[in-house]
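Today's session is about reading a structure prediction critically. Students often jump straight to the picture, but the first step is always the sequence itself: look for stretches that repeat, for charged clusters, for runs of hydrophobic residues. Only then move on to the predicted structure, which in these notes is written as discrete structure tokens rather than atom positions. Here is the chain we will use throughout the hour.
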Amino acid sequence: MKKFLFGAFVLICAEFLAVAQDIPVYDGKGADVAILVDIKANKGAKDNLILINIANPNGLDFDVYVYGKKGWENFGSGNLKYLHDREKMEATSTKDFGKYKYAAIVPLDGKKYSYETRVENSDLYFYVLPEDSSYSAFEGNAIEIDVSSIRKKLKEQYQACFEIAEN
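Below is the predicted structure for this chain, in token form.
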């Protein structure tokens, strides 16, 4: 019985070491603030990366790197101009985002951010949040406005974003 338990322990340790060795270390530009994302852990994410700014009303700039056969490669850059702005990544690579296992999202302002991810329509939505916060905290306080009754009166579609500050 002891041999069996010892064998099982060795097998579990070997599996853990094999998995731990597969996780690459991002040591490129902005490594101290880079956010490492396991793309495959987000089931169904296979097409695009969509960055959404929930953190900074003045905008955010990002570089995105993906881990491929040659190591870390530049996938593209994002410029989120205002709060709640979103951008579908313009890839500099010929591969789809979902073909990679890992991505490093690097904020160019040198600040640390929190994040949450969601998968919708095969796209990975990446919400950039203030450090130590969650999107559900923002989402729970959202105000919904039904404009269906005035839709025909609007000549263009508008996206309304409100920021409510507590005094």
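Discussion point for the tutorial: Residues 56 and 117 are 18 Å apart (CA to CA).
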